[in-house]
Structure formats: C-alpha cells, structure tokens
C-alpha cells in the first residue's frame, strides 16, 4: 500500500475506494446513463452504464420519470459491479458526487411536487412562436429548446396546467433535487433555462421583469413571477447539498450506499463537456458529439448581434459562451452501423456493432474529399440552423455519383458535422477567435477519423484528449472533486485548477485540417445547402 500524504494522492485505487477518497459523476445522456468513479488524481477507477431511449409520444419527445429512476439505479449497479470486480470491495461511499444531463427542456411541477405534463426534452421543436417573441422582446436569442421557450409556449397555447406550475427545472436539476432535496442548478445548466447576467452570475433581472410582463398579458398566465419558479443558481465549486437517505436509496436500492455525500451543483452536458476537454477559458472551445452535436466557444467579448442559430450560455463558472447546437448528431450513423451489423450476421460473419462502427469510420478515410457526389442528411428531428421543424433522414445521390463504401461512410460522417459547420460560420463572421478546439464523446474513440473530418468541417485544428471517451460523466466527477477542493481551502478559479491540477500532464492528439479535406468539405456543404430544399419537401410530403 502506498503511503498517504493527507490528500489521498498516494492511495492506491482499492484503498481510495475503501476510504471514500473518490468522486462520482453521473450523466444522463440521450441514449446512455453513465456513471464514472475517479480517484484523487482524477483518473478513472470504474464505470457503469445503462442504456435507454427517448419515446415519441403524442408528437412529443420524452422520457418517463420511471425510466430516469430505473436508469440511475441501473448505471450505479453497473458501476458498483465494476468496482467489486476490479478491487474486490463494495462501493459504500464516495467523497463527492455530481449529476449532469441533457440541457434545456421542460419539467414543470405543482405545489405537491407532481409532474404536470410529460417531460418535454430539448429535442422538441414546437416552441417557434414563443422563442421568436421572447427573442424579440428580450433582445437575446432564445432557442426553441430552452426551458423558458417551452414555458412561454404553454402560456401562449393556454395549456390548462400553466396556473399550477410551482417550480420547474432541467433533467439534471430534477435528479439533483431527488438526491438532495435541494432545488439548485449549476450556472451553465441554468443558462439554458433563462439568460444569465454575467455581472451577477444569476438570472438577468431586467429580462425576468420583461418575461413577467409578457406572461401577464397572455391568457392562462402563470401564478407566480418566473424567478420564483426557477432553481437557485450556483457556480462551480459551490456546495449544493448532501445525499439524503432517500437519494442514496434511489441510486442504490440495495442499501449499500450511505447518505451524507456532498454534491456539486448539477450541470448540463455542455458544461461538463467543457470541463472534460479543459475548454473553460476564453478563446477555447469544444465539440461534443452524441445524439446531438454542439460546439461551445468561450467568448472574450459579447457578440455584436443576436443570432437565432447561436445560444449564449455560460461555463460552469459563469463566463459567457457561444453555443452552436444541432439537434441531430451521430444517431443516423449509428443506425447504419446497426444495419451493416445485421448484414454481417446474415452472411455468417461474427462481428459486433462496435467493430462494424469502427470499420465504417475507418472506411471514411478512403472516401473522396467531397464524398463522391453523395449527400447524407441525419435529420431525425427538426434543426433550427437549417430552418427545419421536422426532419427526414435520407441519402441522396445523382446518377453520376460514385457510390462506394468509402464515399458512403465519409458522407455519413460529414452529415454529422455539416449543420455544425454552417453554424460555426456565423461565429467566424463575428470575428470570434479560437486558439484550441477540443472534441469528446464516443464518436472520437475511433482514432483519427471523426477528428480529421471535424477539423475539415470547421477548418480549425481539433484536439482529442485521453479522457475524451469518458465524456461528461468524467467531467461532472471532476466538478465534484473541485467542490471538495474548494471546501478544503482551494482558491484557484476552475480554469486554473483544471490547467494545473487535472490536465497538467494530459495527453492529447491534434489533427490539423488537411487542405484536400477542407476543400472537399466546402464543396460538399455547397451541395448540401442547396439540397435542403429536398428536406423541406420531404417533411411536407411524408408524415
């Protein structure tokens, strides 16, 4: 056993687990709920995951709260099993805990804490009228998926539940509330509910007043000022409650996990992605690729104009960030990998989907720079940046295109990044500078492929760190560790602490834009943009 220097740094993994010198992060993503346990040096000790999927019910994308609870317990059980297998001990406590989840959406509760309507996720694009009016009246871009857009759309539509709304939150805020009893939200996640004033680190007071005036003029108005309905805002490092007995039982129904664990403020997947890639300082940015895909660029100054396709949110410390968010990411690419896996099995090949997915990505490297004349639209849902309320996934080609596996694979990867590239052009036109763009998410686990294509799409060097595959679950575990450090006397701001404490020796691989890929992607985007008329026609014709 290594000697203990008082910080836990010199404890071996097993001893750190037994002593509770660990941090646990849980992130609820679109298709997986992942739990990640890290040691005192922020290295991953164990992981666990639970697969889930959203449902399209009554034309609303949703997850049930029962599915949330089941998924939390499933991910923790898988983590505890991994701990026992690796170290031969039960997981009974941790030194800190953090929750992250998909941002935005609509979870309204009444005074008895009953959910008033099924969870409306970020994926819903039915809030166009509300988002447009709020953007105009507040002078601030309010995207379709923001919580306040969902709330105001319900007001405009005169939904019966609106007068009963006593509090609302995000998915991360809901889970944190169930674990601790505290209605609090990290500033990054809160900035996707309602605009944040950078000077105060809290909701913008003038905009709150403007919203209340709008709501008061509408039928079926709210029964309380908006500020009273929103969670308390907290920055990174703040204490945000402790795990209650009921919360411990929710995570671990077996009863092995003890209560009392301190929690950091719950954060959105955008904020934890920034932490996971060490992109929280000005002129840094990151790209997170999953069911959705988004880029976050930390700003040196405010944007000169309001751009409907650009969110302005914050880092977990409250610094302003320009966010290019695309509803559609790698799901369609994953669906094609599933089809090819079925084909492989049909001809007797012993291949799992991960191997097929890696082979498909590898084939993309051999594709023609412009994709050989093929187009791939990954629109399973609507897309604000390209003006679509709904989407129809499709592959399009001309009779003269070259349909090969390599070109097909390349255009599917291009399809993941195309809408993001269009949105990033807006930031470039604003003169936003980026020194480093870091990528994370499962798409980047296959070395060199998605990273190279992303570099071509945004014409910027793209780095991938060794922690990229862990993603936001690791990132929120790090935030939990930072909260513990602040409680112990740490005074460095988050950006400096990450630089000096977490990423000082991190290994990264950087892909420079290949001029041939950049030119090919530009040609692809020109045809892709022209072909958006096909998407509009398809959504009108096929219901």
Task: Please give a quick description of this structure.
One of its GO terms (biological process) is D-xylose metabolic process. Helices cover 39% and strands 17% of the residues.
Task: Characterise the protein shown here.
- Helices cover 39% and strands 17% of the residues.
- The chain has helices spanning 13-19, 65-87, 128-138, 147-156, 171-180, 187-190, 205-217, 226-229, 245-251, 269-276, 331-346, 353-364, 405-429, 450-458, 471-487, 494-502, 515-530, 532-541; strands at 23-28, 32-38, 44-51, 55-57, 60-62, 96-101, 107-109, 167-169, 184-186, 196-197, 202-203, 232-234, 267-268, 284-289, 293-298, 311-314, 320-326, 374-377, 394-397, 436-440, 462-465, 508-511.
- Helix 10 (269-276) packs across helix 15 and helix 11 crosses helix 12.
- The longest helix has 25 residues, at 405-429.
- The protein starts with 12 loop residues before the first helix and ends with a helix.
SSE diagram, text form:
Elements: H1 13-19, E1 23-28, E2 32-38, E3 44-51, E4 55-57, E5 60-62, H2 65-87, E6 96-101, E7 107-109, H3 128-138, H4 147-156, E8 167-169, H5 171-180, E9 184-186, H6 187-190, E10 196-197, E11 202-203, H7 205-217, H8 226-229, E12 232-234, H9 245-251, E13 267-268, H10 269-276, E14 284-289, E15 293-298, E16 311-314, E17 320-326, H11 331-346, H12 353-364, E18 374-377, E19 394-397, H13 405-429, E20 436-440, H14 450-458, E21 462-465, H15 471-487, H16 494-502, E22 508-511, H17 515-530, H18 532-541
Parallel strand pairs: 1-6, 6-13, 9-12, 14-20, 20-21
Antiparallel strand pairs: 1-2, 2-3, 4-5, 7-8, 10-11, 14-15, 15-17, 16-17, 18-19, 21-22
Helix pairs in contact: 3-4, 10-15, 11-12, 12-13, 13-14, 13-17, 14-17
